[in-house]
Specification:
By secondary structure, the protein is an alpha+beta fold. It is built from twelve helices and five strands.
């Protein structure tokens, strides 16, 4: 099998050499069968030799011009048979090979029509020399012609099948590569979003508390010490979350690492609010309706929305006061975060919208992506009076987590 495949590969790479070799082999076999048994004094008619050269030589061009090869080899073979006295019937191999090539390379309908016409014409010519049209030689030639056409058509179908298989394989490979690139892009966005949500919150606290410590270092040592303590705590938490994220990115076997990192949810809201309150942000929390459990994805998204929104208030608010409302409705949880501390103490916060949530900032974009991925709704922007407001609506998922007595 390997030797056959290797031979086919060599023939495909050097098709012109293979065709020239076939032409030479047919011509040599024809001369040997036509003149090897004749008396030494009997010569070789020049028209027969010329016809044999033309008929067999046409095979060298059979792949490039199959119809031309058939049109030359067929009459040349008949001329050779006429001048050689009926010997050298192997010359008929030339038109039969040309018939095979026409059936293989020419458009199928045209190939079959022209091939049948050529076989019929050659059979008719033979009948002129030998009146028995249905004689054994004519029937054998007609059968061989049909066999050549069938073999060429079968080869055409096989090549078309192999081409289709190769195209499907290439298409499947491209689709796999596209799917892999898509998955990589989605995972990269997810990691970026998680890093922003988990570490960005703590870094924002560190930035603000560092500024407080710097301002109070000379005038209020106790306040500066307290601010530095907050910086230390936030730094420890940020390093821990960053370490957990990096652990998930390690390859298997590199180090002992937990298989899963517990994802935060609304049950960790008390700790988040305590951390923000300790840093100087006042948060009024309101809960409306009966508290219902959320699916893990929705629970994590709700926590991240609250965390990012309150962190933005902490960074950009003048009065550092916010109101968090959790409204557990019939089919969805509505989260609203209002910035109640307008910068400057009075008048609308004209500088808040650009500073807090420009369209291209990662925080707003990340919250919107998370909420929309769960089929929810998200809005963020200034409300009446100039303060900033974030609203996220999350559907309950899945429904079987919701108590049966929910109204």
């Amino acid at each position: 099998m390997k030797a056959t495949a290797h031979l086919r590969s060599v023939v495909r790479r050097h098709a012109h050499i293979a065709d020239a070799t076939i032409a030479l082999a047919v011509f040599t076999a024809t001369l040997l069968t036509a003149y090897s048994g004749r008396p030494a004094g009997e010569g070789h008619p020049a028209p027969a030799i010329v016809a044999g050269v033309l008929g067999c030589g046409a095979l060298a061009m059979r792949r490039h011009r199959p119809l031309w090869a058939l049109g030359v080899s067929a009459p040349a073979a008949e001329v050779f048979l006429a001048w050689s006295g009926g010997g050298g019937v192997l010359i008929l191999l030339a038109p039969l090979i040309a018939l095979y090539t026409v059936a293989e390379l020419v458009e199928r309908r045209s190939a079959l029509f022209l091939g049948c016409a050529a076989v019929a014409a050659l059979a008719a010519v033979h009948a002129v020399h030998k009146p028995t049209l249905l004689g054994p030689q004519n029937l054998a030639f007609i059968a061989l012609g049909g066999l050549a056409l069938a073999a060429g058509d079968s080869s055409r179908n096989r090549r078309a099948y192999l081409a289709e298989v190769e195209q499907r394989a290439e298409r499947a490979e491209r689709e796999r590569e596209q799917d892999a690139r898509r998955r990589i892009a989605e995972e990269r966005l997810r990691i970026a979003r998680d890093l922003h949500d988990a570490v960005g919150h703590q870094l924002a606290l560190i930035s603000v508390q560092s500024n407080v410590a710097g301002q109070a270092l000379d005038s209020d040592t106790a306040a500066a010490r307290q601010a530095l303590a907050h910086v230390k705590s936030a730094s420890r938490q940020a390093l821990g979350e960053l370490r957990d994220t990096v652990t998930l990115l390690r390859q298997p076997g590199e180090a002992v690492a937990p298989l899963a990192i517990p994802a935060p949810g609304l049950d960790g809201l008390d700790g988040l609010l305590a951390s923000l309150c300790a840093s100087g942000l006042k948060v009024d929390r309101l809960v409306e309706g009966a508290v219902l459990p959320l699916a893990p994805a929705a629970d994590l998204t709700a926590y991240r929305v609250v965390q990012e929104s309150l962190t933005n208030v902490y960074k950009h608010s003048g009065g550092r006061r916010a109101r968090l409302t959790l409204d557990y409705g019939r089919d969805e949880l509505r989260i609203t975060v209002d910035d109640l501390g307008m910068r400057g103490g009075s008048g609308p916060r004209r500088d808040l919208a650009p500073a807090a949530a420009p369209a291209g900032r990662h925080g707003i974009v990340g919250m919107r992506e998370r909420v929309l991925a769960l089929g929810g709704h998200f809005t963020a922007g200034p409300r009446a009076g100039g303060a900033f407001q974030v609203i996220a609506v999350l559907p309950y998922q899945p429904l079987d987590l919701v108590p049966e007595n929910r109204r």
